[in-house]
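Example for tutorial group B:
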């Protein structure tokens, strides 16, 4: 089977991952983590050397589903299976949800809704390591870099 060069180029753009280009930003972040949280600089530098910038994450955030009007977006999440999954998840995790709600002041229904949207109640946990996703957005998405670097800090 012969592939056209356009198909091969398209396929490569879907799978290309790269190291973090802005090493000065990584060094500054490592220094911040060391100074603020006493992280070992060598270990963090080694960790960030293993990070892969995920081009598909950058493409996805550039065209979010949230840009759709509500009447279209709603159809994705307000399905019988998702609602049934939410009820089941809530019932199975009621004690933990109530404990978290009491501790942080977030109502269980909000927690369940977020878990449903983000993971379909744990059935979809993503295809990327958290470190790769947050580093991709923190170091390669200038529009929201500050936010994602704070998230990366919290994650670490």
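The residue assignment follows.
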């Amino acid at each position: 089977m012969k592939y056209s060069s356009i198909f091969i180029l398209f396929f490569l753009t879907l799978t290309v991952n790269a190291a973090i280009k802005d090493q000065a930003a990584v060094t500054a972040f490592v220094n911040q983590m060391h100074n603020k949280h006493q992280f070992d600089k060598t270990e963090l530098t080694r960790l960030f050397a293993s990070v892969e910038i995920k081009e598909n994450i950058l493409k996805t955030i550039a065209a979010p589903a949230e840009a759709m009007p509500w009447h279209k977006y709603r159809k994705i999440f307000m399905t019988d299976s998702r609602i049934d999954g939410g009820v089941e998840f809530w019932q199975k995790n009621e004690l933990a949800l109530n404990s978290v709600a009491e501790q942080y002041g977030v109502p269980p229904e909000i927690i369940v809704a977020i878990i449903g949207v983000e993971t379909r109640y744990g059935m979809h946990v993503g295809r990327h390591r958290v470190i790769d996703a947050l580093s991709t957005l923190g170091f390669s998405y200038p529009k929201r870099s500050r936010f994602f670097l704070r998230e990366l800090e919290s994650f670490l």
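The mean pLDDT is 87. Compare this with the pattern of hydrophobic and polar residues in the output above.
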